[in-house]
Amino acid sequence: MWMICKKEWQQFFSSLTGYIAILLFLLLNGLFLFVFPDTSLLDFGYASLNGYFSLCPWILLFLVPTITMRSFAEEYKTGTFELLKTWPVTPAQIVWGKFLGALLVVFAALLPTIVYAISMQQLSAVGGIDAGSTIGSYIGLLLLGAVFTAVGICSSSFTNNTVVAFIAGAFICFFLYTGFEAISKLPVFKAGADYYIEMLGINFHYTSISRGVVDTRDLIYFAGVIVLFLFITQRNLVKR
């Protein structure tokens, strides 16, 4: 499993595409948070990273499928999946190795953004940023990235076309993040079902953790979604 994880990491950074994807992610975050006047944190008048934690999931919607789209689709297309099946590993180990390798890349992209928190803390005249909320929000981002990675890996396992894998992964991530919240606002669900429908979406649990309170129910939700999509991926590999 760890050999596959290492292979995924090295494969992503074996070309300029990997570096460009992460650089674009950091560049977009920097532009929105410190340059564009409508979203600049410097114009808020107080030290807060709420704008970043609201914006980052939308950028991850495109970054993570970019990272995961080649996971299995490229293996199918080049024929190396047949070679992979001859390795002394189980389908579960292949899936988890791919998942952990891609997840490490996502974490590597998020790690430099800690500079934003340090910068806001240094620029703050009084009090500084809310440490509890910031830590909770980063935990939420890591869990969010893990769910998007599992979805992207699953989407890639169904096709040998990387573009299709990207589009499918991005769409499913978008629906899981905001789709249930949008459905819950339909008038037909105003009788009380709206709250439970909204709970099915990622944004509900991400927002909860971002308040600085890491609830066990939120952790179970994220873990359940990750395991579900990786299980679907594993079953798909077994069929192949």
TrEMBL record:
<dbReference type="GO" id="GO:0005886">
    <property type="term" value="C:plasma membrane"/>
</dbReference>
<protein>
    <submittedName>
        <fullName>Gliding motility-associated ABC transporter permease subunit GldF</fullName>
    </submittedName>
</protein>
<keyword id="KW-0812">Transmembrane</keyword>
<feature type="transmembrane region" description="Helical">
    <location>
        <begin position="138"/>
        <end position="155"/>
    </location>
</feature>
<feature type="transmembrane region" description="Helical">
    <location>
        <begin position="51"/>
        <end position="73"/>
    </location>
</feature>
<feature type="transmembrane region" description="Helical">
    <location>
        <begin position="219"/>
        <end position="238"/>
    </location>
</feature>
<dbReference type="GO" id="GO:0140359">
    <property type="term" value="F:ABC-type transporter activity"/>
</dbReference>
<feature type="transmembrane region" description="Helical">
    <location>
        <begin position="162"/>
        <end position="180"/>
    </location>
</feature>
<dbReference type="InterPro" id="IPR051449">
    <property type="entry name" value="ABC-2_transporter_component"/>
</dbReference>
<dbReference type="Pfam" id="PF12679">
    <property type="entry name" value="ABC2_membrane_2"/>
</dbReference>
<feature type="transmembrane region" description="Helical">
    <location>
        <begin position="12"/>
        <end position="36"/>
    </location>
</feature>
<keyword id="KW-1133">Transmembrane helix</keyword>
<dbReference type="InterPro" id="IPR019860">
    <property type="entry name" value="Motility-assoc_ABC_perm_GldF"/>
</dbReference>
<feature type="transmembrane region" description="Helical">
    <location>
        <begin position="94"/>
        <end position="118"/>
    </location>
</feature>
<keyword id="KW-1003">Cell membrane</keyword>
<keyword id="KW-0472">Membrane</keyword>
